[in-house]
Amino acid sequence: MMKEVIQVNQRVELEAFVRGEWRRYPSRIEGVSDRLILLAAPLKSGVLEPVSIGSPIRAVIIHQGRVFEFESVVVDRHRGDIPYLVVEWPQELTVANRRAFFRLDVLLNMNYALLESEEEVEELLIPQKPGLIKNLSGSGLLVWVEDEDGLAIGSRMVVDIQLPEASDIVLARVVRKEEVPDDHRGRVAVGLDIEEINPAFQDAIIRYLFEQQRERRNKGIL
């Protein structure tokens, strides 16, 4: 299974320890051997990021609609025309921890409904109020919405997330609320943690973010 997933030209999300903290970068598998994997070196604004030999890395891969991850160690670096990191084959390949996924700035439509009670609801309200998704991950989102009574940290929302190729409803909790400076409509920025989501739709979100990340990297935006 591992060698079916880890293949040349496979896109990956690379997490490396850089400048004292874990950072995430788009990458690609440039080559494989029996013992080693070549990963496209992480770049920021076209400049190589300093990943040290001996430092750990994590990688996330989407394969046939499923999301996997592995951990390894950098054993060498190459700075030629295609800079890459040389890492060891991992000990194991596991289903990815979705809550660890990266966030990406986006511009997507949404509808929502604000729940009025903490009690469990047998049937969720139909999301009808419009909003704008400004940042998205597999486990949370940042949205701009009209302020209203009851919209506070700890309250819950039913959100209809509208991707270009798919949409679905999630249940999320407000973890942050701030004013949007200079917004003529007086909207607020609300940070949401997703509490309930269809796993298939969560994978669809992650695939969409990977595709957007790849397109932006190809255009030199990332």
**Mean pLDDT figure:** 84
Q: From the helix content, strand content and strand pairing, which structural class follows?
A: mainly beta
Radius of gyration: 20 Å
Largest sheet: 6 strands, antiparallel, barrel
Spatial strand sequence of the major β-sheet: 1-2-3-8-7-6
**Terminal Cα span:** 31 Å
Beta-strand residue percentage: over 45%
Percent helix: 10-25%
The structural domain count equals 2
- What oligomerization state is this entry in? single chain
CATH architecture designation of the largest domain: Beta Barrel
Weakly predicted, low-confidence segments: none
Look up the CATH topology of the largest domain. Thrombin, subunit H
- By CATH, the superfamily of the largest domain comes out as predicted glycosyltransferase like domains
Number of helices: 2
The general outline is elongated
SSE string, helix = H, strand = E?
A: HEEEEEEEEEEEEEEEH
Total beta strands: 15
